[in-house]
Amino acid sequence: MIEEPQDKAPEEVETAPEAADAAPEEETPEVSDETDTEEDQDEEEEEEEQDPKDKKIAELEYELANMRNMLLRTRADMENFRKRNERERAETTKFANRKIFNEMLEVLDNFDRAMTAAPDAKDNFVIGVTMIQKQLIDVLKQNGVEEINAEGRLFDPYLDEAIAREHTSEYEEHTIIEVFQKGFRFHGQLLRPSKVKVAAKPEAVEAEEAVTEEE
Q1: What is the C-alpha to C-alpha distance for residues 86 and 69, in angstroms, rounded to an integer?
Q2: Which CATH number is 113's domain given?
Q3: Which of 5, 40, 67, 178 is deepest in the core (most CB within 10 A)?
């Protein structure tokens, strides 16, 4: 007998999930070139709006610095002018005073001659003249006039004027041994030189030295 084929149960076929069932992919938004261009233009416009302001501020700061420097220079020039003017005025006054004090020294010289010729230093008249002489000397000192001490020291050509020489062995050569007229300084500067007599070597010594030099 022939066996009839038995009906087989249909095999169940598992189908893989379709691509449609897969997770959807994220889409990246597209950036338009127009948007970028607009933003760049906006930034440029903002910079253009700020630049004139910054430039104006910089110009004002520069002008302010220049004005400050000019003010400082002007102030310094004015201060220098004031000091120079005061110095010139002081020099002018000092020069005028020198002339007056020189004339006063001649009066003082007359006092010295009178006191030297006075017969009696204890006489009331002589005492009164001495007091006036002292007052005059004090006034001169208060105004910067000081006597130059000359007698007994070596001759100084910047302070003294030698009008006589004396050959002697008692003093060192060039020593001032007599003062004919007192010298004075005015604020440290020479007002009048001292007129003096200066010691010189004995004539015999000078003769010997001259012979030695000739040999």
Answers
A1: 26
A2: 3.90.20
A3: 178
pLDDT of residue 91: 78
Domain annotation covers residue 9: no
CA distance 6 to 19: 38
Number of structural domains in the chain: 2
Confidence band for 50, pLDDT divided at 50, 70 and 90 = low
Mean pLDDT in residue range 142-154: 93
H/E stretch holding 197 reads strand 194-200
Enter the pTM of the model.
0.56
Spell out the long-range contacts of 176-182 with Cβ–Cβ below 8 A and sequence spacing 24 or more.
176/150, 176/151, 176/152, 177/151, 178/151, 179/150, 179/151, 181/109, 182/105, 182/108, 182/109, 182/112, 182/147, 182/148, 182/150
Q: What is the CATH number of the domain that holds 198?
A: 2.30.22.10
Residue 164 and residue 106 share a domain? no
Strands 189-192 and 160-167: unpaired
> Residue 144: left (phi > 0), alpha (psi -120 to 50), or beta?
left
Separation CA 94–CA 43 (nearest Å)? 75
- Residue 192: closest CA among 126, 111, 106, 122: 106
pLDDT for 85: 87
**194 touches 162 (CB < 8 A):** no
Q: Is residue 11 part of a domain?
A: no
CA atoms within 13 A of residue 136's CA, in its CB half-sphere: 19
Quick one: tokens of 69?
A: 């420097």
